[in-house]
Amino acid sequence: MENRKLQNEELHRISTEEFKSVEKLPIVIVLDNIRSLNNVGSVFRTSDAFRLSKIYLCGITATPPNREIRKTALGAEESVAWEYSKDTLPVIHRLEADGYKVFSVEQAENSLSLEKVTLPTDGKYALVFGNEVKGVQQEVIDHSAGCIEIPQFGTKHSFNISVSVGIVLWQVVRPWLNRF
User: Is residue 180 predicted with pLDDT exceeding 80?
Assistant: First the structure.
């Protein structure tokens, strides 16, 4: 078996303009006070890769256009829809009113272990990721349908936010893999 690396033109990726008009997964990301611009850029890039509907940038989370975000987003800040809100909780309330089931990704009592999470493909979902030090605000957790926790086995108690987004999205989007 030969494993020749594919050239970019062989990947058949859609253009930024095509991305804006094609069907997206019914999943949005809410960034709750993310301080690292590199993390924000990475979330844009991962959201583009999984064809998510939107990113909500809340609180101190930086917004495009921004050179530091662009470094890691590699242009995904132009393809993925986004919206800024000074406060996270009103975004959560609006998403719930629009039929989204909101999950905070956080270590919390009664959290769901990620490997047991399977979201039905007939729903809409919002995944909230919190500040690199403080995590998701308690008031946001209080208004979530539940918390999702990534199992960990080492000495550290958390992943980098951009790594968490990638891990969680891979598990969550698996039921949709044949959609596109």
Answer: no
